[in-house]
């Protein structure tokens, strides 16, 4: 839902009212812009889509475009641009533009007219959203959504409208900014607010940060979900609410991975890379003893007390992710629990806005920017998981770098921290055709495999809060466990 709702798109079956409009304000603003181009400097965030009269929107867009490029936009030039526009000719062409200029008020009213246009555009969008939600709520059985889904659509639509409904004065005094930042730093006393709980990595990163996106990227199978779940568990165990969107994996695998992690005992023996701990494969094969089944029951009791919530439904848009997260955090705050973290696993599974579907580059840019904006609006860190391209596979050391990010430029720009996961053990598995491997090659591979056993490298390729570098952690991937290296 956007503020682009037109009069012919708005049904009347809820309000019985016509769509609100500010046509006279649109005329006045166009007249001001044509007679005093510098007045455009007073206007922020007003687009052609905000205008009720489509022709006015097109004229505004042409004026904006020429002004942005440093070119003149007077009535004669616009007349040449719109000479083939049927609606323009119907209005009277050049005479219409001249009339707008002739009755243009003073530039001092510029911001007030722009605000009125934005406000009526938002109200039209609200009317359209209300009608769409009413249709959903009263829909037939073939298309009926449940109440929770309809509420999520309502909140997502309202959030989209709010993005462009108003542009307030956001200037901040630098002295006040410094005072606030220093006070918050002093109050924290060096305590990391959103830690993983692994000292080496927390020292390098300083933890995750409010209002910022951290990208966690790796090739499939390396351990993105395991790493993300380690962060989610740690922050939830610190008493903060976590919203985990598992867009790729179903609820059962996510639940069992968490149970394995919570039940993990680092001191149990491991032989030739085979752990004695509970693993997902052992659970699925029914290879657990009674004591291990009881361990899972205990893990379930621990998990039930954590303010960690999963949404494993596919096809969420970023707007819906934001709406669902906002509702979860509001509910948590009512119970005295602070908002903590949003995890999105992974960005390639987020459903893009309608206008970007099918364009992979546009999809990635849209998700990345929306995640960054969501982090600021909800005042929480966002951990955005990302698949790396195949460039990693072609390197001898298999270590990823920023160029391996899909649509690397935009993702790197929006993220304040970029972390790559590198698990050498993943690349040292036996080849599919074991006969193609010589005896010496097998010995060499197995020696490297033993040296790489349970090592997970967190490569910090971008860090706006400190140095880049690498931290080593222990990872028993079969048991979904990440721990401090020792």
Describe the SSE topology.
Blueprint: H1 23-35, H2 54-68, H3 75-81, H4 86-91, H5 94-102, H6 110-137, H7 147-165, H8 174-188, H9 199-205, E1 213-218, H10 224-237, E2 240-246, H11 251-262, E3 270-271, E4 274-275, H12 280-285, H13 290-304, E5 308-311, H14 318-334, E6 338-345, H15 360-378, E7 382-387, H16 408-414, E8 417-422, H17 439-452, E9 455-463, E10 469-476, E11 481-484
Parallel strand pairs: 1-7, 1-8, 2-5, 2-6, 6-7
Antiparallel strand pairs: 3-4, 8-9, 9-10, 10-11
Helix pairs in contact: 1-2, 1-5, 1-6, 6-7, 7-14, 11-13, 14-15
The sequence of SSEs as H and E is HHHHHHHHHEHEHEEHHEHEHEHEHEEE
CATH H-level superfamily of the largest domain: P-loop containing nucleotide triphosphate hydrolases
> What's the tally of helices?
17
Give the integer mean of the pLDDT values. Answer: 83
Q: How are the strands of the biggest sheet laid out side by side?
A: 5-2-6-7-1-8-9-10-11
Using the coordinates shown, work out and report the CATH topology of the largest domain.
Rossmann fold
CATH uppermost class of the largest domain: Alpha Beta
Structural class call reads: alpha/beta
Number of strands: 11
Keywords: ATP-binding, DNA replication, DNA-binding, Helicase, Hydrolase, Isomerase, Nucleotide-binding, Primosome
GO biological process, one term: DNA replication, synthesis of primer
Protein name: DNA 5'-3' helicase
Family: Belongs to the helicase family. DnaB subfamily.
Observed structural traits:
2 domains; DNAb Helicase, Chain A; two-stranded antiparallel sheet; single chain; elongated; Rossmann fold; alpha/beta; 486 residues; primosome
């Amino acid at each position: 839902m956007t503020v682009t709702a037109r009069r012919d798109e708005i049904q009347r079956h809820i309000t019985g009212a016509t769509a609100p409009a500010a046509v006279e304000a649109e005329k006045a603003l166009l007249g001001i812009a044509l007679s005093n181009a510098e007045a455009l400097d007073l206007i922020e965030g007003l687009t052609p889509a905000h205008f009720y009269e489509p022709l006015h929107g097109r004229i505004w867009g042409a004026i904006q475009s020429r002004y942005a490029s440093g070119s003149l936009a007077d009535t004669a030039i616009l007349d040449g641009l719109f000479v083939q526009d049927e609606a323009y000719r119907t209005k009277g062409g050049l005479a219409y533009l001249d009339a707008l200029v002739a009755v243009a008020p003073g530039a001092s009213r510029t911001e007030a007219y722009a605000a009125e246009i934005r406000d009526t555009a938002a109200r039209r969008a609200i009317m359209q959203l209300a009608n769409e939600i009413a249709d959903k709520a009263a829909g037939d059985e073939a298309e009926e959504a449940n109440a929770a889904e309809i509420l999520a659509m309502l909140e997502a639509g309202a959030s989209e409208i709010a993005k462009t409904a108003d542009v307030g004065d956001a200037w901040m005094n630098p002295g006040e900014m410094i005072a606030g930042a220093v006070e918050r730093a002093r109050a924290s006393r060096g305590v990391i607010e959103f830690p993983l709980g692994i000292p080496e990595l927390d020292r390098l990163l300083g933890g995750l940060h409010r209002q910022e996106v951290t990208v966690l990227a790796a090739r499939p199978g390396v351990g993105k979900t395991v790493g993300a779940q380690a962060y989610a568990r740690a922050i939830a165990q610190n008493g903060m609410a976590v919203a985990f969107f598992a867009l790729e994996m179903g609820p059962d695998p996510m639940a069992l991975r968490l149970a394995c992690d919570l039940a993990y005992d680092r001191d149990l023996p491991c032989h030739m890379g085979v752990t004695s701990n509970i693993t997902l494969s052992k659970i699925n094969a029914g290879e657990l003893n009674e004591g291990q089944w009881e361990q899972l029951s205990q893990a379930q009791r621990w998990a039930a007390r954590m303010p960690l919530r999963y949404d494993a439904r596919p096809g969420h848009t970023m707007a819906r992710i934001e709406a669902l997260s906002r509702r979860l955090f509001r509910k948590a705050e009512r119970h005295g629990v602070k908002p903590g973290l949003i995890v999105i696993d992974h960005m390639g599974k987020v459903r893009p806005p309608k206008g970007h579907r099918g364009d992979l580059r546009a999809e990635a840019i849209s998700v990345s920017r929306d995640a960054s904006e969501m982090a600021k609006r909800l005042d929480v860190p966002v951990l955005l998981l990302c698949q790396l391209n195949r460039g990693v596979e072609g390197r001898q050391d298999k270590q990823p770098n920023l160029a391996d990010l899909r649509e690397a430029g935009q993702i790197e720009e929006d993220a304040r921290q970029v972390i790559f996961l590198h698990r050498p053990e993943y690349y040292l598995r036996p080849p599919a055709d074991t006969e193609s491997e010589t005896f010496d090659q097998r010995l060499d591979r197995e020696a490297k495999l033993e040296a790489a056993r349970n090592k997970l490298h967190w490569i910090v390729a971008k860090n706006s809060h400190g140095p880049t570098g690498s931290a080593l952690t222990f990872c028993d991937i079969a048991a979904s466990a990440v721990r401090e290296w020792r």
